[in-house]
């Protein structure tokens, strides 16, 4: 009997079959992919992809939720993990899921730290705004009920959208993200993720005021963070809250502690009318990810997985409730009636829409930044920082670095790159990252990484 040897092409085919099976598991819980891809929505200067889910018979004047995935994730995986499309079918709202492309960022992170992608009228921020305009026109969405949320890099990009287009959004929810203006480069992003500077509330607020000509009213904002998050430090949540309290004129206001389960601290800050303008949720013991109470029954949503964390708290339900989208009866699956707000005008047919191809499973860490978009005319990707290699990369390790990073850095700081990122100090002979370690080639990727880490205070000189 023949015993054929596996060649490279056979291995590739095997890997593709495994990915297909994994993607069916990730997106097929109850009936296939809920998302459709839409093209032709504008000039798309950020080169993003647009996916959406619109429930059948969606009434005029329904809300829109914009959901931004984290690094290494795609739109379908994030949607299924959080349960956004399932909740949209139950409650009667539309969902827009922008998706990053690997040509823009090799770890599929939104470029929340790049000035060219975080300014009004430019880059990825403008692409997302164009997608929203397409949804408003095509589906007669209520323009006064547009909301945005996201995880990690998507959480930071949520802050970007709220700051650059505040007139577009009634509310937002930042999950394990950072405040707007936290970084304008890779090096600054590293520092902010680890130990963000505690700035005056007025300074945080001014960053948002400078991002657009808008002067209020401001979106209502919900901020979520795990207290055990070592990817994006939980101090970022406090800076985000501070930023939006300043914008709402609530700098000196005392918060109200709302009921919450064990380890769940929920604070709200209310305006003179008694409406909560800003809220924060802190989850004790929770690492980096979206807080979930997964399942399909009452008070349940989404599916647990990598960075989709079953902590007994459904952030999906609570965010919708904060925004004023009634979640009562969500378990029954019947869309809640939504009254149209005025004449929304004709409903044109999208220029191009097709079912989204199921994406691969996303087990790798959705950390916040990896690589900048290559400069115009450049054939090489920018410096790799702060990210494990993508799960589907041809190699499980960063090129040129034969050893893995230690579990902690000097002072006990957790390895911010993840276990798959390799140690630029470890030579082929297994030299430790200490006094006798060899330095990476000057000017190479390793040198850039090490200098960025040292500047951010995440790595010593190697001779401590």
From TrEMBL:
<feature type="region of interest" description="Disordered">
    <location>
        <begin position="332"/>
        <end position="363"/>
    </location>
</feature>
<feature type="compositionally biased region" description="Low complexity">
    <location>
        <begin position="428"/>
        <end position="438"/>
    </location>
</feature>
<feature type="compositionally biased region" description="Low complexity">
    <location>
        <begin position="411"/>
        <end position="423"/>
    </location>
</feature>
<dbReference type="GO" id="GO:0016787">
    <property type="term" value="F:hydrolase activity"/>
</dbReference>
<dbReference type="InterPro" id="IPR010126">
    <property type="entry name" value="Esterase_phb"/>
</dbReference>
<protein>
    <submittedName>
        <fullName>Alpha/beta hydrolase family esterase</fullName>
    </submittedName>
</protein>
<dbReference type="InterPro" id="IPR029058">
    <property type="entry name" value="AB_hydrolase_fold"/>
</dbReference>
<feature type="compositionally biased region" description="Gly residues">
    <location>
        <begin position="401"/>
        <end position="410"/>
    </location>
</feature>
<dbReference type="InterPro" id="IPR050955">
    <property type="entry name" value="Plant_Biomass_Hydrol_Est"/>
</dbReference>
<feature type="region of interest" description="Disordered">
    <location>
        <begin position="375"/>
        <end position="423"/>
    </location>
</feature>
<feature type="compositionally biased region" description="Low complexity">
    <location>
        <begin position="332"/>
        <end position="346"/>
    </location>
</feature>
<feature type="region of interest" description="Disordered">
    <location>
        <begin position="428"/>
        <end position="447"/>
    </location>
</feature>
<keyword id="KW-0378">Hydrolase</keyword>
<keyword id="KW-0732">Signal</keyword>
<dbReference type="Pfam" id="PF10503">
    <property type="entry name" value="Esterase_PHB"/>
</dbReference>
């Amino acid at each position: 009997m023949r015993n054929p040897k596996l060649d490279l092409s056979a291995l590739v085919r095997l890997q593709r079959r495994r990915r297909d099976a994994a993607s069916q598991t990730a997106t097929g819980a109850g009936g296939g992919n809920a998302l459709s891809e839409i093209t032709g929505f504008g000039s798309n200067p950020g080169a993003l992809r647009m996916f959406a889910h619109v429930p059948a018979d969606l009434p005029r004047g329904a809300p829109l939720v914009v959901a931004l995935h984290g690094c290494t994730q795609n739109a379908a995986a994030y949607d299924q993990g959080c349960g956004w499309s399932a909740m949209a079918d139950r409650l009667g709202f539309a969902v827009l899921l922008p998706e990053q492309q690997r040509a823009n960022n090799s770890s599929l992170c939104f470029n929340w730290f790049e000035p060219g992608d975080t300014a009004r009228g430019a880059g990825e921020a403008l692409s997302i705004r164009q997608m929203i305009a397409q949804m408003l026109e095509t589906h007669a969405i209520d323009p006064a009920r547009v909301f945005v949320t996201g995880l990690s890099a998507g959480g930071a990009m949520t802050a970007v959208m709220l700051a650059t287009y505040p007139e577009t959004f009634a509310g937002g929810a930042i999950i394990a993200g950072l405040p707007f203006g936290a970084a304008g480069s890779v090096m600054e992003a590293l520092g902010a993720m680890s130990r963000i500077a505690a700035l005056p509330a007025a300074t945080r607020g001014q960053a948002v005021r400078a991002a657009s000509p808008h002067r209020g009213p401001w979106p209502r904002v919900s901020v979520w963070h795990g207290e055990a998050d070592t990817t994006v430090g939980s101090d970022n949540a406090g800076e985000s809250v501070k930023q939006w309290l300043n914008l709402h004129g609530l700098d000196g206001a005392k918060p109200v502690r709302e009921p919450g389960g064990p380890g769940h601290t929920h604070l709200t800050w209310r305006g003179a009318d008694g409406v909560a303008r800003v809220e924060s949720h802190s989850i004790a013991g929770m690492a980096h990810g979206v807080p979930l109470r997964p399942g399909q029954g009452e008070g349940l949503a989404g599916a647990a997985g990598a960075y989709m964390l079953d902590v007994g708290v459904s952030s999906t339900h609570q965010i919708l409730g904060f925004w004023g989208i009634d979640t009562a009866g969500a378990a029954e699956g019947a869309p809640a009636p939504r009254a149209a707000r005025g004449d929304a005008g004709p409903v044109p047919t999208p220029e191009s829409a097709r079912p989204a191809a199921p994406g691969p499973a996303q087990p790798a860490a959705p950390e916040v930044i990896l690589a900048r978009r290559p400069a115009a005319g450049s054939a090489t990707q920018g410096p790799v920082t702060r990210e494990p290699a993508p799960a589907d990369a041809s190699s499980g390790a960063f090129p040129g670095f034969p050893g893995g990073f230690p579990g902690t850095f000097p002072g006990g700081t957790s390895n911010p790159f993840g276990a798959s990122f390799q140690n630029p100090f470890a030579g082929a002979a297994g030299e430790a990252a200490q006094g006798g370690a060899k330095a990476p080639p000057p000017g190479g990727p390793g040198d850039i990484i090490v200098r960025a880490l040292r500047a951010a205070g995440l790595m010593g000189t190697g001779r401590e």
